[in-house]
Protein 1
Amino acid sequence: MRLVRAPGLSSAVTLAFALGALALSAVLALGTYFSARQLLLDQRERTAMRQAFSDAAMVRDNLLTSGAQVSDVLGSIAPPAGATIYVRRHGEWYSSSLDSSGQEATSRLQSVVADGSVAVGWSDVTDPHAVVVGIPLAAVDAEYYEVSVAEELDRTLKTLGLALAVCAALTTLAGALLGRAASRRLLTPLANVTEAAASVSAGDLSTRLADTTDPDLSALVGAFNNMVDALHDRIQQDARFAADVSHELRTPVTTLTTSLSFLQQAPDLSPRAAQAVQLMGGELERFRRALEDLLALGRLDAGADDPQFSEVGVRELVRQALLAGQRHGSMLLVDGQGGPDPVVEVDRPQMLRVLTNLFENADLHGGGLTGVRVLERGAFVDVHVEDRGPGVPADDKTRVFERFARAGGQKEGTGSGLGLSIVEQTVRNHHGDVWCTDRPGGGAVFVLRLPARTGVAP
Amino acid sequence: MAAMATRLLILEDDDGLRASLRLVLEDEGYDVVEASTAERALESVAEGELDLMLVDLMLGGMDGFSFIQRARPLTDAPIVVVSARDGVEDIVTALEAGADDYVTKPFLVEEVKARLRALLRRPSISSTDEPRPGEVFVLDGSDGPLVFDRGAAVLARGEREIHLTNTEFRLLSVLAENAGRVLSRSSLLEHVWERGFFGDERIVDVHVRRLRKKLEREPSEPSTLVTVRGLGYRLDLR
């Protein structure tokens, strides 16, 4: 089991851009820094050497001419700012300032200078770093060292380093932003595809992606649209197949029911034969009803049954549907407000079929119809069909409207499995809605919502 | 006096269904004539003495629509269409060609029996020749008055008698009895065709159109048999 979700495409692109920018800017910044540093160090060394040579010459000359002591000579010359002069003569160290770190600061150069060569080096004993120049003064048997602190250079390098680091950081950030923008731009067409796919899976097979001139995207758009076309064709083929099969069954089923009706009237059947005929009658009736439902759904699918709207009183319609199903008119429960019968515009036979299917559903799956309520809801009229059954499990509340769907635990073969699909499809054609909820006292309620007739004040 | 058995033509090309319908309808007391093609059925119509017809629409050779169109001028016998075609246009076309009612397959034969009985049932005709009050309706009093004598089953404009089919006669009777009152399509369906709750109201519209061609001077702008939008139809006596 993966606990950590892999980063999304957008995050991955952003990260890649940021890392790329970071690597590039780091290389450039380091390169710049080190070449600049080298240049500055060389320059500083040259300056220090020039200064040291002129100072050393002065010290040598002073020592030669007067034969004076080193300390006196050092006391008489002013070293340049930030520089300290050390002189070693006969093993003794002399300094132009009070500090006596000369031995440490010049330690790396001493052996070279002692051999009679000029040496230049850097000391990290001091802070900031210092450039050390060592010059052998053979004429006076001494070694001359000048240690000058490179404070300026250290500051310049620090500033340069900081500036380059800030630049690298900014470049990285810019890379990340660029990556984000690029991934957004790349993902926008994918979002359109996602939206279209969602719309297709929600049942709208007329959804297509808009044509594009982008050669990179046109393949995707073309493939997607072809896929939806193929899906649409396939669904239509299936629907046509079902319609064709049902159509072919019309005449044979009619012959069977007609012949059976003749048998049922026959006076000279033995009791056993009569029982067999009765069994056939029951099954054939179920078969015929299923076929009628299939045909009705086929007509709804093909859009052949456009509703013929006429103005109908809802309570009157419910009463008619109750009577048509040999149910008692008192099933229509009137809550306090008698009021005038709310009027809707519906196709009367189709809406009677809807109510009858809901009543039959209550009888078959809901333990029996307990009552029907008509409720006015402003722009809508709701019809509540209530049963005394166990209610519909939450998971099945939308599934019950699917074809051949049966609520869990229902025994097979009580209805055609299409009744509620016909209800839903018909109600949609009427711009209404139907859904299933629980009744506070137990049992299920199927709510049929129809738009109230417009243009008339309540 | 033994009543003559009602002669019923079954035009159906499916042998099984035709045979099974014959079994049941003969038990009902009909004198059944079978035909498997429209051509054969037209011969029976030409021979006359048919009281009822049960007609399938999809046939080899001439189809049911053409048969109805050709048979209608030859006979008044009510025609019930039994068809696997349930498209609105098929139904309206069949009715406009002259069919009186239709049943779509798969049907219950009890339904067909009921349809046939309803179409045969004529409103009782008075036993005397004297026109009784309430039996004669002047539909249009203007020049060449349009008079419907229900008792004698005659519609006439001036001297000219206008032919009515059985169903048109029943429809006009119900409308005339309730002249000035609006009758909803469903109540007409119930009274004229004795259809239950699930009848298709288009059957009423088609027959009203047919009747208007006979009643109205200008059928597209009816003044006698008027439509009351959203409610139904009303016959106005003038």
Protein 2
Amino acid sequence: MSERAVRFTKEQIAAYAEASGDHNPIHLDDDFARTVGLPGLIAHGMLQMGLMGVVAAEAAGGPDNLTRLYCRFAGMVVPGDTVTFSAEPAGPGKLELRAVNQKGEAVLTKSSADFEA
Amino acid sequence: MSPSGEPRNAAGGVAGRTYPPVKFQIEAERAAEFARAIGGDPAAGVPPTFAAVYSLGVTAPQLFSDTLAAVDFARLLHAEQEFTWARHPRPGETVTSQARVASDISRRGMRFISFETETKDESGDPLCRSRALFVIRP
């Protein structure tokens, strides 16, 4: 099993916004995020998927081996949260993916990957 | 058309809508910066989830700026994402992505848009397919 724990920060979320080009203010501006009913700024789902993809690639024997990656964004991730991403073999060429926060809540559910070694 | 064959929401429903292809050159430095942002190895080529940029990222703005689709961006949540790859692109490659709205359904005040993007290489061979599920909250 491959596993990595990541503590989310505003700086890291801002760096992902810059690198991905996704500048939606719900990821950058606490005040704006509150005006649309969020608790404050939240991490991009795609940042969670990026981190999950790195762990999945490690379990698959390298990034080029990944043929499919699926994530269902089930919970919000906010700065200060620590999320543990893990990838576990689930049959030939298949991985079961999990991401769980410090409270034990799943932030990604039913997530999976396929690979060809 | 929407699954019912008729408008399903106030915006009229835009299932079946197809957007013009978008070309994108995968610059090595941009892919490396993305790898650093996700805790990956910037020397390992194009990270698989850089598809968030070269496939989904270049086409989603077409949906978000489509006045007929009328997506309320501030209330938009990315609920699911799937990428499938025929192969992974290399730094320096130019790729072309074309997107369509696969379905657009409103139910109990929530709107669900399935947005699919096909990305091909310079020979026209498939590279990546992206399937995003967006939910627009009331």
